[in-house]
Amino acid sequence: MTADPSILARPSGGYAMLAVDQREALRAMFAARQPEPVTDAQLTAFKVDAARALSPYASAILVDKQFGWDAVIADNVVDPSCALIAAADAFTPSATEFVADVAIDPEVDPMTVRKEGAKALKLLVLYRPDEAPEPRIAMVTDFVARCREAGLISIIEPVSRGPRDGGAYDHEAGIHAAARELGALGADLYKSEVPTHGKGTPDEITAGCAALSSVISSPWVVLSSGVPAEVFPEAVRLACRAGASGFLAGRAVWASVVGSPTMADDLRTISVDRLRRLADVVDDAVSH
């Protein structure tokens, strides 16, 4: 079965998708703001509140099985206008990384989450320059096949990481090497880091995005991790002008309100304003 990724898009054709699938990284954000341990229930409550407040303004929302999916579905907090994406990745941490290894999560059954409302699955892929490409390629190929069999949109999210031994590496080169390796394997949507993490000149960011567009065979969007929230809207604009189709992002929308004493209100005000602005950027960029 085939699925059309445009069902995750806005009427403009651009993608304004929200991610709330962060796991131990989200726990660390809370831990930085409170002395007591961060509970699993606290993470789940945040995801439910964020989905309720923000999904009316997103074209799709990405939720993880570990801390969010079941509660978000049970509480019926996602706006009917917003498509559901299930994270299909299982993370293994190390002493230095929240995510040191990734596998397709056996707990996420494509047909089950489809019945629960999912339109797509997402898979994180770690690109390390010291590791052979064959396992990455095999995992992405397997993932795409599983999605097609279930009639779900496949989204892959390759991210550039350093070598296992902690040695020096070129993060920017990894973004582009991952796209060359994985960008034409049949995934319906490709989620990329912003070239230069949005810190380069407009010309540098534009050139980097154009290079990604030349090797990614599907529509592609940017994520916001590593990009300062205040520059992410401009990074999205530049990316879309150079061939991207929008964003699938979380931190640029809600990270600053995590742990706030008025967090629920802040999600409805600060975070909604940011998401609406980003959606306007996408609509404007893809229509020119």
The CATH superfamily appears as Aldolase class I
Please give the order of strands in the largest beta sheet: 9-8-7-6-3-2-1-10
**Count of extended strands:** 10
CATH topology: TIM Barrel
Mean pLDDT across every amino acid position: 97
SSE pattern, N- to C-terminal: EHHEHEEEHEHEHEHEHEHH
Percentage of residues assigned to helices: 40-55%
* Rg, nearest Å: 18 Å
Percentage beta strand = 15-25%
The top level CATH class name:
Alpha Beta
Count of helices?
10
First-last Cα distance: 33 Å
Shape: globular
Named at the architecture level, the CATH assignment is Alpha-Beta Barrel
Major pleated sheet: 8 strands, parallel
Describe this structure in words.
The chain is α/β, with parallel strands linked by helices and 288 residues long. It has one domain: Aldolase class I (TIM Barrel, Alpha-Beta Barrel). It contains 10 helices and 10 strands. The chain has helices spanning 24-31, 40-54, 69-75, 110-115, 133-150, 171-182, 202-215, 232-241, 251-254, 263-286; strands spanning 15-19, 60-63, 83-87, 89-92, 101-104, 118-127, 153-160, 189-192, 220-222, 246-249. The strands form 2 sheets. An 8-stranded parallel sheet has the order 9-8-7-6-3-2-1-10. Strands 4-5 form a two-stranded antiparallel ribbon. Strand 4 and strand 5 form a beta hairpin. It is globular, with a radius of gyration of 18 Å. The protein starts with 14 loop residues before the first strand and ends with a helix. The model has no long low-confidence stretch (mean pLDDT 97).
